Amino acid sequence: MRTVRKMLGFMLAVCLMVSAMAVFAAEGDSSEGSGGSGSETTTPSNSAVSYPGGTYITDSNGHKNFVGEEPGLSLLTPGDLWFDKPGGATAYVRWDGSKWVPTESSGGSSSGSDSDSKSAVEKEAEARAEAEAAVERAIQEQASRDAVILAGAAMDEGFADMGDMYIASQKSMSAGEFYNNAVVSTPGIENAVTVGQGGNLVVNGQVTNMSASISKVTNRAYVDSVRIEQEGRVLNVVDVSYPATEATINFYMPSVTAEDTIVALQYNAGTWVEVEVAEVRADHVTLNMKGNGVVAFIAK
Fold this sequence. Notes:
Elements: H1 2-33, E1 48-51, E2 54-58, E3 64-68, E4 81-82, E5 93-95, E6 100-102, H2 120-156, H3 162-170, H4 175-180, E7 182-183, E8 195-197, E9 202-203, E10 206-207, E11 213-216, H5 221-229, E12 233-241, E13 247-252, E14 262-268, E15 271-281, E16 284-289, E17 293-299
């Protein structure tokens, strides 16, 4: 950042000096064309003059203002200013007759800005602060762009917002599964039967407003082990949790009919334990559950 500022400042100063030289040359040509003497070599105030490694102008006070490499001693007189100190950042120093010394802003020079009069430590601190601010802006801008991209992706996937998409992704669930409290597909099961839950759990014989949460089982070891434990077609394996110890829970399972023989097993402490099936009817299987856990539905 500081290097860029230095280059811009130096280029601006050089451009101003070159422009001044062009104007002066044009005025000289005009004078010759009108009968003026072309042999005069007087250099007017504020005209640009080149020296080895740089350019300078003479201000209204008769002091030279150098931009570029350090001028030779033969060019220097006390009070001259030099704006490009060797070793890095643009500096503003004055020749005192024997050495260059820092100086405060000078009202008679275009270089007398507040930034020129600041110490190297102050300039370094400002440059560091500007760099840190630039990085912070870049991070915020990138975060904004990422947020727009993610919001678009969430909408494309059917989610209302990024928060829902993130929660669903942690459960390996699609938007339809997430919003409908259902599991449509499970690793290791071809043509799995959807298992969903719509609330109205029966606890202690009373219908409540409680719901059971249905989550996807991504570890197919459960599927493989229940196939060994129980003969039949595995319809689905889901994780069920609800805010009670025991409850009668009605599961939505489209394509199930009242004539189907359904067995439910729950994984408990390393073994599969049968769960009482209270009812099987069209598109529904009701279980009398005695705790949370992974449940497998099997058609015999």
